[in-house]
Amino acid sequence: MKSKHVSIRDVAKHAGVSIATVSRVFNKTSFVSEELIEKVLTSAKELGYHPNRVAQSLRKGQTKTIGFLIPDIVNPFFSSMVKGAEDFLKSLGYIILLCSSSGDREKENELLVTLYSRKIDGLIAITLEENNPLIDSAISQKVPTILIDNVVNRPFVSCVASDNYGGVKKLMNYLIETGHSSFAFLSGDPIIYSAKERLKAFKDTVKGKDDFEFEILFGEYTYESGIEMVRKLSRIPDAVVCGNDMIAFGAMVELERQGFRIPQDVSVTGFDDILFSRMSQPPLTTVRQDAYLMGRAGAELLINAINEEIKNEVVLLETTLEIRGSTRERK
Amino acid sequence: MKSKHVSIRDVAKHAGVSIATVSRVFNKTSFVSEELIEKVLTSAKELGYHPNRVAQSLRKGQTKTIGFLIPDIVNPFFSSMVKGAEDFLKSLGYIILLCSSSGDREKENELLVTLYSRKIDGLIAITLEENNPLIDSAISQKVPTILIDNVVNRPFVSCVASDNYGGVKKLMNYLIETGHSSFAFLSGDPIIYSAKERLKAFKDTVKGKDDFEFEILFGEYTYESGIEMVRKLSRIPDAVVCGNDMIAFGAMVELERQGFRIPQDVSVTGFDDILFSRMSQPPLTTVRQDAYLMGRAGAELLINAINEEIKNEVVLLETTLEIRGSTRERK
DNA sequence: CTGTTAGCGCATTCAA
DNA sequence: TTGAATGCGCTAACAG
């Protein structure tokens, strides 16, 4: 039965040295004789001592803690980012303070205050809206901040995102090569950076070209929204290009319900390549983006920002076209 | 351009009061005259002051921080638990320190040291193995600890899990009522508490009854394992009862590949009811357990343990049978 | 009702 | 090489 907290003082007394020596042994901050190192380590082990990180944080002015603000931890796309970041940060002794905003902007601001008052060394945020007030908050607090899946040009803020534009371009080129000439684009909410970029790539591909017919619908990045948008389609095109995979799943279900065969009657594509995309029937042709890597890249950027004051950088990650069974190869 | 950190002393000076008064205003810990409250609040706002939680933690000996140890944050089943816990804890001013163990027991221990040295007020852990060394660790540190999806009887440790046994019982009863009499059970690794319980319920139902034929295979809670186990089946039974939904998805794909129709030729069932279970073709008959609720219940238990010293309780949550298209209704 | 002060556990100066 | 003393920002006695 040990006492409640064993502090550096207990170890010092037990080892017959000063607290400064104990501190030096644990921090290797200056030379201590072998003899004393031994003594201190033995005493520490015997008492079950571990340095109190709270006290260290207060003293050193850094907490080795990173705030992570995320709309929905249950979404594997977002949680993959957390994992990517965590795996990297952990190796450097950082730990993640997790905050779910649930997309609620008011909550988001409260959470930021909490995070800042807990003296996080840096912040990684996934925000749905492209222009979010938190960005200004971050700047005024001067906490190094990384935005993932969003791109802005502001001081103290770096960004990581996939090349959404390039991804959809690749996809559209493939569809055109394989003989598709009429399209529907089922967009996510264009307040979101990624949705906007994907939409832009689609428009840039088809607009003003007489060879193509197209139609654009707006919804959300959800299964239900995919179903709904298909119902609103004025006609069924060669290819239904979806803003993300969830929309595509909804679209596929609704198209089949209406009696269309995929891909014989209509091709369907997604974006993201989530786990289930290769398991659906038919497996989904989609643009693969690596959320884990985005998280990791964000964390690396953040550590740079913390250490080297590089505070305004944008990293765009490559995407890969995954051709599967939901698109036909020839008309 | 403000100075780096604004402390309670800065506010006190600016407002012309003592730091104790400032503290009292923010903590409402004793009466302060309206006049001074006003002054302090104005100064605080002007300077952008927020109490430093790190200093508070050191002083008060509590961090309002909960450690959350989880095998894989990307798995929606686990992340739902995090969400459930977080939603509740947030409302009480707690925040979550997230740690992924990746199932690595060595890492798990390192992470625990980190968590303890950061003086978490409590720990919520999802551990794969039923008997995990972390449990002893938790006991020796006297940090209130909750195990989710696992049940042990130890001091300082409370547990939350679904009624896995009852769930499989319900499921088996339904299958028997609908005329199934030969079964295969595709189990997860029985080192895991839930896998063990589900297996037990299956065995208890079919064993020693001449009416039933059955076969049991062991694998993991994964899609790939489902495929593999189906390949090892000695014959195709009336119903393939899977340890969880991921196994069921693998099983369905492999059964269909082998030319069996679901549910006409063979029924397939899962456990968990993850998001995609209702989206698969055919939609999966499964036992629904509410991961979000488990997380929330765990958090509630933890707060009780922290406040009231209730430190050894087990909560078993009800499950629901979700009958969908992957099981036939009559032979 | 308000101010002064001690000390939470630690890292870091400054002396020795 | 080691120890004593200071203070990080704050809360909680205690005194007035």
Automatic annotation (TrEMBL), chains A, B:
PROSITE patterns linked: HTH_LACI_2
Keywords: DNA-binding, Transcription, Transcription regulation
HTH lacI-type domain segment(s): 6-60
Pfam families reported for this sequence: LacI, Peripla_BP_3
Superkingdom of source: Bacteria
CDD domains: HTH_LacI, PBP1_LacI_sugar_binding-like
One GO MF term: DNA-binding transcription factor activity
Transmembrane segment boundaries: none
PANTHER family linked to this entry: HTH-TYPE TRANSCRIPTIONAL REGULATOR GALS, LACI-RELATED TRANSCRIPTIONAL REPRESSOR
Protein's name in the database: LacI family transcriptional regulator
Species assigned in the record: Kosmotoga pacifica
